[in-house]
Amino acid sequence: MNPLFRRLQVSITQHSLTLNQATSFLCRAAASIQPPACGNGRQYKSMPTHGIGRWRHLLPKGAPKKKKDKHQMKAIVVATDMAHGTLNVSVSGFHMTVVEHYCQYIHNLCNRLRINVAESYALPTKSTEVMVLQEQGTKMYVDAVLKTHERVVQLSSLNATLSSIFLDVLLKNQPEGVQLSVKEHTEADYQARFKSRPELEGLLAQMNQKDM
After folding, report:
1. Which of these, 185, 175, 127, 125, lies nearest to 153 by C-alpha position?
2. Which residues, at least 6 apart from 124, have a Cβ–Cβ distance to it below 8 Å?
3. Which one of 68, 93, 149, 207 has the lowest number of neighbouring Cβ atoms within 10 Å?
4. Can you say how many angstroms the Cα of residue 37 is from the centroid of all Cα atoms in its chain?
């Protein structure tokens, strides 16, 4: 036989052996990479996780949260010869947006003039019904409901020499339909910030009578 043919035959047999080996290796690798069986036959369902995914124990232990204390009234500043005490600049009107913007203007003006603003808060909205008498009859019906919005900017230790200038600027920039008043702060003004609960007050009164 020609030696050329023999070489070709040997090389072909070697290539076939290498292909067979590679095919068997790929089949074994594919069998080992198969996903876990679904359904009741999965094996990882009952295996322990050993706390995988837990992270709260890694956070630093902080102080326990305290309950919010009941809102208490601040001490009223006493007036002196050089400065006023605690003053309430009250702004009220029917248009909520105008009242809110004017209150914001007063607050910004106090900040520019370096006037100490203790608090700025809103009072409960008051509703007023306008009753109209019928032309022929004695019954009255509700024609309109007016809502009065009120905001308060509380000042502390307003300088006596600056107070007149401050009030002149407020009056010159007072919008139409907005009422402005300045008065000393009292305990009654503090209680007016909260809505009354007559049912709760009645129950407390009954409990106090029973204790006595």
Report:
1. 185
2. 193, 194, 195
3. 68
4. 49
Dist. CA 111–CA 93, nearest whole Å: 24
How far is the C-alpha of 204 from the C-alpha of 72, rounded, in Å? 20
| Predicted local distance difference test score (pLDDT) of residue 196 | 73
How, if at all, do strands 86-93 and 178-184 pair?
Answer: antiparallel
∠ CA 84-89-90, rounded to 5°: 150
The CA distance from 189 to 156, in Å, is 15
pLDDT at residue 23, as a whole number: 72
Measure the CA–CA gap between 30 and 43, rounded to whole angstroms. 19
Structure tokens at 142: 């509700």
Given the structure tokens 């204790």, which residue do they identify? Answer: 211
Tokens of 91: 């702004």
Per-10-residue mean pLDDT of the chain, 212 residues long, equals 58 68 65 53 58 69 66 77 90 93 94 91 89 83 89 91 92 93 88 78 83 68
Hey, what are 38's tokens?
Answer: 């679904």
Do the beta carbons of residue 141 and residue 181 sit within 8 Å? no
Cα–Cα distance, 190 to 11 (Å, whole number) = 104
